[in-house]
């Protein structure tokens, strides 16, 4: 079996077989990300783990010219893609013809596992995250990878090429900035 980095490189060059092998080898990791995301979302996503992984894969497969240097970068991108899948579902649910009234969410990852999230709040977090990206792109990326992707601090640090302590500081700073933004 080929190394995942080599397969990612080949998939980036358009080799469909290599892309399928990447997903086959990383399917468990993708399911872990999806499980984390669905646990945070409660009942509002209307997707199960498998459906979220498959929807994210369809979007990843459609990303022309996207290359990933290694497994962690691929998983970070997959986390971002899953975030966009959930955001798109929330926006669709919030369309006037569909409505939607769910309980609020929190930015505290220790508490969020048990609390379902509301569509409005998820969209506000998404918008605040986009604002944060204009201030400091790495802070936004840390939040996205941890909150939406469920990656551990060590995994984020390795993917971004910084220390774990830097990620901890970035997470604290991002939470403060986001909580100020969400209070408005």
Plain-language structure description:
With 184 residues, this protein is mainly α. It has one domain. Helix content is 72%, strand content 0%. The protein has nine helices and no strands. Helix 4 (71-93) crosses helix 6. The radius of gyration is 17 Å and the shape is globular. The protein starts with a helix and ends with a helix. The relative contact order is 0.12. The model is unreliable at 98-105 and 110-116 (pLDDT under 50).
- How much of the polypeptide forms β-strand, as a percent range? under 5%
- Counting DSSP E segments of at least 2 residues, the number of strands comes to 0
- Radius of gyration equals 17 Å
Low-confidence stretches: 98-105, 110-116
What class, by secondary structure content?
A: mainly alpha
Helix content: over 70%
**How would a crystallographer describe the biggest sheet?**
none
Tally of helical runs:
9
Question: Which descriptor suits the 3D outline?
Answer: globular
Number of domains: 1
Order of helices and strands: HHHHHHHHH
Ends apart, CA distance between termini: 52 Å
**Average pLDDT, to the nearest integer?**
76
